Every structure is written in C-alpha cells, then in structure tokens.
Amino acid sequence: MINKINTLGGYFHEYQKSTLDPESFWAQQAEFFFWRKRWQHVVQWEFKTPSIRWFDGGKLNITENIFEKNLYTHGDQTAIFWEPNDPNDAPRQYTYQELFHAVNQMANSLKREGISKGDTVIIYMPMVPELTIALLACARIGAIHSVVFAGFSAQALADRITNAEARLVLTADQGYRGNKVTPLKTVVDEALSQCQGVERVVVYQRAYVDVSMTPGRDVFWQEFISNASDDCVATEMDSEDPLFILYTSGSTGQPKGIVHSSGGYMVYSAYTFRNVFQYNNGDVYFCTADIGWITGHTYLVYGPLLNGAKIVMYEGVPTWPDAGRMWDIIAKYQVNQFYTAPTIIRSLLSMGNEYLLDKDLDSLKVIGTVGEPINEDAWHWVHDHVGQSQCPVVDTWWQTETGGVMISPIAGVTPTKPSFATLPLPGIQPVIIDNDGVEQTGNSVEGNLCIRYPWPGMARTIWRDHERFRQTYFANYENVYFAGDGVRRDEDGYYRILGRVDDVINVSGHRLGTAEIENAINEHPLVNESAVVGCPHAIKGQGIYAFVVCPQTSTGGEEGVKLSIKQGVNKRIGPIAKPDYIQIVSNLPKTRSGKIMRRILRKIAEGDASSLGDTSTLLDEQVIDEIIQGALVEV
Ligand code: WT7
C-alpha cells in the first residue's frame, strides 16, 4: 500500500523529506509497485533542453499494477459501477477480475489487428465502461492511447488523428448526454474524409442504431473482439516509454499533444490519488470528469484503479433529468469521495437547494474540485449543503501537463481556506517569479507560478514538437517549469491561484486557446480579423468574448453573420468554443507595430473600461471609444 499521510505534522515531515532528498523520497514511493526490472536511476534531468527521465532502466506495465499485483486480494471486488445517462436504464458493474478479462480480450484483438508497442490509437467514445477498457487495453500492449473528448468536432478530431499518426480509431455509434444524442460515428466518418492513415474503425454499439459502415475499414466492437482470448501477457515497457498523448490548448492555434510516461505517471497518479482524497480500501469514489480530459485519465482511471478503488463512472450530465442527479448517484452508490468542478457546483447551486432535500449524502467524506478557481460562494455552498459541514473540500490545482495534483489540501489533514489551493504536495517545489525573472521569496507575494524540481508525473514532451515543449514551459524562466498561471502566496504561505497569464481561457474548467477560436472565426468569408478574450461568466467561470472586424454583413444582417460565425466555430472546434458575445467592430485596437492590444479588450470584456492603463502606443485611440460604446456587457 502506498504511504498515506494522516496528520499535519506528518505532511510537513514528508514534505521536508521530499525536498531535502527527492530521490529517496520518490524511490520509496516507487517501491510499492510491481516492476519487472528495478530502475537504475531515480531521476535524471535538466530543464534546458529539457530532458526528464524518471526511474530510468525500470521495466513495468501499468496494467500489471492494476490487475496482477492485486487480483489475489481484490479480484472479486467492484472496480467500476457504471451509471447510465438515463436513470431508468440498467446500471452495469465490473469486478477487477471481470475488467481484467475484458481488457485482455480487447488487448488481444488490437494485437491481432497488428497494433503493437509504440503505435498510437485514437479513442473517441462516450462515457461507457468500454472506454476505460479501451485505454487499459492499449496500455496492456504498449500502444499509446490518445483520447479525444467526444464533444469535439470532426475537424478537431481530424487534426488530432493526423498529428498523432493514428492507424486505428475506437468509437461508438452514438453517445447519450442528458437529452442530447451525439452521432459519434458520423463525426468520425466526416473526420476521416479529411485525413489519412486510418485503416480500421472499431464501433461500439451503445445505441444499436443504423450507422454507415465502410467495408474493409469499419467493424463493430463485438465482432472485433470475437474469439479473442481473455488472457494476454502484458508488454514490458520502459519507464520512459509514452503511455498516452492528450491534446490540450495553448496560446497559439495548434493544440498540443502532451505526452505522459509509463513509470513516472504511474507512481505519481497513484500516490496523489491516495493522499489527496485519503482513499481507504473499500471506499466508493466518484469523479464527474469525462475521460476525454486529464482529470478523467488520472483520477477516474489510473490513480483509483492502481489503488484498487471502487469507482463510479457516470455517462451523463449533472443536470439531467434534474439538478438532483449527482445527489441521487451519491446516495445510490454510497459515495465516499466526490471529485467535481466549480462550474458544476455553480450551476447546481443556481438551481436552488430544493434538489438536495431528502437526499442521503451521509456517506460523503471528501469533496474535491478542479479545473478553475473556486469562488467563495460555491465553496461555502458545497461545503455547507453538500458536505453538510462534515467534509473537507479540497481545491486541487494542476494541469494536463503536470499529470496529477500539485497544490492541494490533503483531505482532513491540511486546514482549508476557501478559494485557496493551500500547500504543495510532497515532492512539489513551487516558486513565484515576477515578469522580470526575479524570484519572489517569503510570504505575501504574487507572480508567475513555476516549479523548481521535476516530479514523476510531469509531461515529457509535446508529441513531435519537443521545441514547442521547451519554448512553452522552460524558456520564459531559467531552470524551472513555467505553469502559465498567476499565483499569490498569502501571509500564511498558502497558495491562491489567480488564473492564466497567457492567452488561454478557462470555460467551464475546459481550456481553450484564444488563437484557436480566432482562427476558426477568421475562416468565415466575411470576417477580416478578430480578437478573442475571456469575460466573467456566472456559471462557466469565464465566457468567450469575440471582437470581430466584418465590414460587410451581407443579407442576414449583423445577427445573421453572428449566427453563422457561431456555427462555424461549432464546426471547427465544437460547442464548448462558441462565443458568448460577438461584437462587430470597425477596427481592433493595435499598436503602431500592428500588435492587437488584448489587454484593453480584456478590460472592456470584463466591464472595466475605467482603468484601461496606458493607451499611448495605440495607432488609433478613437477605436477604443467606438468599442466601448458598442460593448455587449456593462462597462
Ligand atoms: C488550468 C489547467 C487539471 C485538470 C483540469 C484542467 C486551471 C486547474 C485549478 C484550481 C485554479 C485551476 C489553471 C491551470 N486550474 N485547477 N484548483 N484553481 N485554477 O486541466 O485543461 O490542463 O487546465 O486550469 O489555470 O493552468 P487543464
């Protein structure tokens, strides 16, 4: 069993050990796993190139640590409680033993197809158990999985298939989320008409609806796995072999394929899961994230399953059939740890407390949040009404790139403070650096959040673009990892995340690059150029505000253009990227050198035109007045 911290003193002790001698600290954590061959070096690193290697020389397979290592003790225990979208449909369950067989069967089928170690597989599926099986089957044979969230558009999917060089796509006929049906197979067909290289599409039948099947390329899941043995020896992986690629948005247009390792990620995901949530054997753990995001990878699949946890996997959305669904699920499965996002909390809060009436929430011990800063109202509501003032609320800060939680309370151990991620986990050394590169030491300071020393779960590269990896995270400040967030360390040494300092916005806990949205808008034939910024949004945290230069609006008038811009973004990226506000302007505020002054647009979108700061470098100051006059929010 992984070491669990139980007291605040214990935390400080572990933290100190981890900074004084990180190598022994992490070696000790790694001892709890099954290695086919032990590592030779705990860590070798430099942040210039950068090159980061954990447990080098070690051989392992992460699925052996989920299954073989634990089957004797909990083979018959539930691994997955699957709750369908429609509460009247039948739930499904898998024990560890059953999951093991299903994973092996799929692994053998992939092998039979010619997929082997180092090949990439794109997974575009709804939240059904087969999605988890797909990830683990890839991991079993050393294929690199790349899950694309099933809300992304055909174009976005095609971009990722091309970038990942995938030969095989796993998908489903349809997905159900609330009262919406997503025609996943149709989206895949459209994506494949725009990219090359995919030879096989495996279609899980969730709905048993008619879908078009391309002969020679498409096959149904049942047929694909038929006659495959459920016994499959795991492929031996080097610690540093990639486990998966997950795409995320950056400040430039093209999404980044973040690459995670086999050995380090295993140790980090399992260690942080056990500690942050204080998971005890037998507890039931429910994470609302979709596996299409990193939270689903680390804290629905790998972290919990490595700990032999019982997980609840939910297919649908939190507000359907009504805003009491989360509480029904918690009561039904007697959930002990509940991990969700501030945006979900805010949306449930806004629907009123009556949905909590008569719900049995007594099983809850820990509530966790992730994805964006949690405002005090949401924190207090979830703490008082959902946790009935009995459960610690852990506000966990981390990123796709960090692989697992970095700064967070340890449930029940670290005293919490609303809207603070509190203290770094053992092994994590945050530093605050100002824009001139000067480290801000001591307390009551603010600046850019960076991390000084590597940790096992950190990303190793961007798929096929190591130079971008270096530039994005290691070039701004020397010898540290730059997270892209602003942070304040208060008088108690507690960390409060202030939000992104780059051109990335966070909409309902989902990260979007403003450049990515601008590119999509600019594809509209009537649009000359555009600038996208974030704006405050009561439920989503941030909304999307687009300033668009569009001299002619053709027959549909302004409203017609706005509608077709929204449709265009929906098609290019997906519904999550649709702007909340589109303001048509005659020009964008630019410096004499032609750079858009986003700082000013951000202020206007925030409704704060009184403090625009220095505008003297602007080419044409008048344009600002026009934009303020036409603003779609109160300024
Ligand atoms: C960005 C990373 C990590 C899984 C979900 C998002 C923001 C994340 C918090 C938090 C304030 C947070 C940051 C970060 N963020 N957690 N507890 N408090 N902000 O992963 O899509 O990679 O986004 O989400 O801005 O950089 P992601």
From TrEMBL:
Residues 516-595 form the AMP-binding enzyme C-terminal domain. Residues 11-65 form the Acetyl-coenzyme A synthetase N-terminal domain. Keywords: Acetylation, ATP-binding, Ligase, Nucleotide-binding. Its EC number is 6.2.1.1. Transmembrane segments: none annotated. It comes from the Bacteria. Residues 67-462 form the AMP-dependent synthetase/ligase domain. GO terms for molecular function: acetate-CoA ligase activity. InterPro entries: Ac_CoA_lig, ACAS_N, AMP-bd_C, AMP-bd_C_sf, AMP-binding_CS, AMP-dep_synth/lig_dom, ANL_N_sf. It is an enzyme of class 6 (ligase). The keyword Transmembrane helix does not apply. The keyword ATP-binding applies. It holds the Pfam family AMP-binding_C. Belongs to the ATP-dependent AMP-binding enzyme family. This is Acetate--CoA ligase. It comes from Celerinatantimonas yamalensis.
